[in-house]
Structure formats: structure tokens, C-alpha cells
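quick one before i forget lol
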Amino acid sequence: MNLLYYGDNHKVLRRDVEDARLVCCLLLWILVGGFGPKDTTPAFAWTGPWEKTGLTGSYHSYVKLDDGRVACFCNRGLSKLVCDCPSLMFPGAIAVSFTREPGNLLTWTPSAPLMTWEGILDLPDPSDRSRPAPNRLMTRPTVVRLPSGYFLGLGAISRDYPPVDGLYYVTSFAGSMERVKVVKEALLAGREVPMSEMWKYQGKVTGPVGEYQDKVQVPNSMYTDVGNLIFLPDGAPKPDHARPTRNRFLLFANYLGAPELKKDGWLWTTLCYSADGRKWFFAKDPTGVVRNLTPFPDGGGLPFVFRHAPDEWWMWRTVGTWSEPGTDTIVGAREICLYYSPDGLNWRQVRTDVSYRDFLGADGRPLGLKNMSIYYDEDTRQIHGMLSVWDDIAQGWCKYHNLAKVSRR
């Protein structure tokens, strides 16, 4: 039809045809893609109030054992050569405690050492490099259980805490389930824990991460936060540089790999990966620069990443600090923020998960927060949030517990 034959009516007919075409395009668009990609972001909410547990400290890893109990791996205190305070002295560079009953994460046994600080032999005394530094120690440990039953862990070693020279080094250690069972049985029975067959210290990690820490690090310019270790049973047997999140071992960490340390090192969250747990690489962007996973203007740190599925990753990060009124003394963090990623590399902030105003001390003033650790129970499909909150009476960090169940919208 030639619309020009209809005089002034051709404008109306042309508009009707254009409207019809628009409706057809809209219907086709809805059938093919709807109003854009469906939102597959998992949704969950904490089910109740935060409850104080029997755990103290901040940097914890949680593993369910064959009897249903959960083991908590952590570091505890300083060596007697570093600290004269009896309440802080503890022989364990790595320690473990256990839930007294399966399914109850509020009540725990005391902790006992799996590896002593004396096993750290590759951190020399600057005044005499032929002997280990007398003030050496380990902090920020993270542990995973392997299919073989053995455990592998990473930590940060330093001279004193905070380090007198500003230097931290990433190191690894390993140990058997047999030792864990011996410690568990002794603690549950109230017996003294034998000190034989301790876990083995493996030394500073190798590869680019180890070289960076050993040669490039600038004193007092950055703070090495080892973050949390993830083990993927189906990960590549050799390093997969093209697909970093497909590797067997993943480490999400703050303050590692920032190219301009003084300027922006404290803002970075990086991904490190390994095929064997000893040789570690930095995930890089297409230009070859170490990738910053969280370029957010919030100054966050202390990340804990939970991988629920290949397309479902969560991260909890500490954001902001607050001080005692009228002082410069930092009490703790203001909030714990929650982030989501479909691939472990591209992240977006979802919400503020916890605020320091949610926890009040005896005087009615807010207590400080530090970090969030996560334990996921595959049997119940529940996330156990383990939050570090400052105890103003005991003058230490205590873990608070809450539950959530993950689902998709």
C-alpha cells in the first residue's frame, strides 16, 4: 500500500503502522530477554539476634569433622619472648578448639596447639641472620581440609606484632587429621593434650607472591592481610593463569600486590591462586597489572569470601573505623559490608550487613567490630556468621554467631 494516496490520512496510517511495529518489537524483546537479564543474586537474611559464643580472637577457619562437630582453627596470643602478659602467652602459632556438641556453635572447648611458634625457622634475627628472630610469630592463619584428610594452611609471619620493621611474609603449614583427633578427644575429656606429632611448618611461599613479599615490600607501607583460603577439589592441577578462579587454591587478601603501595595499597583486595598451595600467583587484569577486585571508595579490608557455587560468590569486608569520643584511639570498625560476585572477579556492594551500633557495651556506647568469618554447613545449607566484637570488660575480641540460609530469587 502506498500511503501517499490517502491524503492527510496517510500520517495517521503511517503512525498506526509504526506503532504496530513497535508493539511487535516489544513483544519479541520480552520473549527473548524480558526486561534485561534476570536477577540471579542469591538472597538471604540473618534469622535472629547475634549471640555470644565461647570463642575469642578474630581470624578463624571452620571445618566440620566426621562426628558432626566443628573444628575452629586460629592463632592464640604471643610467645613469652614477645609478651610478658600471662593471659596472652600461648605456645600455639596454630591452635584448634571444637564444638562440644554437633550443630551447636555457641559452646566450645578450650584451644590447644597444633603447631608452635618455635617451628618458624626462616625469619632470621636482623642482628644475627644465622639464628631465627627471637620475637618471631604467626598471625592471620587460614586453614582448609583436603580430600586426603590432611589440612593445609597459610599465615603471615613477622617480627613481633605489629612488626617492628613493618614486614610480613606469607607462609604455609600442613598437618594431619590424626593430630586433630588426638587434640579433640583430649579436650572433650578434659585431659592434658600431648605435644607429640605436631603440624609441620613449610616456610615462606614461593612464586610471585613470595617474591613480592620478600624483595619488593616497602617497610610500613602496607599491611599484609592473608584473608581466607579456598580449596576447589576440581581445580586445575597446573596453574591456570587465564582463568584464575578455576585454580585449586584461592586466596582473597587485602594489601597484597598494589602497584603504588604508599598511595593506595591499603584499598586493594587481590586474588592469589595456586595449584599446590606452595607456589602462588597474582590474578591480573588484561593489561598485565595485578587486579584490584574492590575499587570501592570505602577503604574496606579484612575480606572473607564464601564461594557457594561457580556463579555465586559472597564477600564480607570491614569498612570504616571509629574512635573513642574526643580521642584518636581507634576502637574498631563501623560496619561489615556484604558484596556479591557472579564470577569471583567482578564485585558489587549489596548492603551493610552489621553496624557497630548494633552492639552496645555496659555503658551504653557502641562496641567495636573487627571482621566476619563464615562457616557453611553443606548438610543444612546454612551460613553461620562468626562476627568479631570487642568485649569492653574482658578487653578482647569475642565471636558472635548468627544463622542464614541461602536461596535464589
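fyi Residues 9-33 form the longest helix (25 residues).
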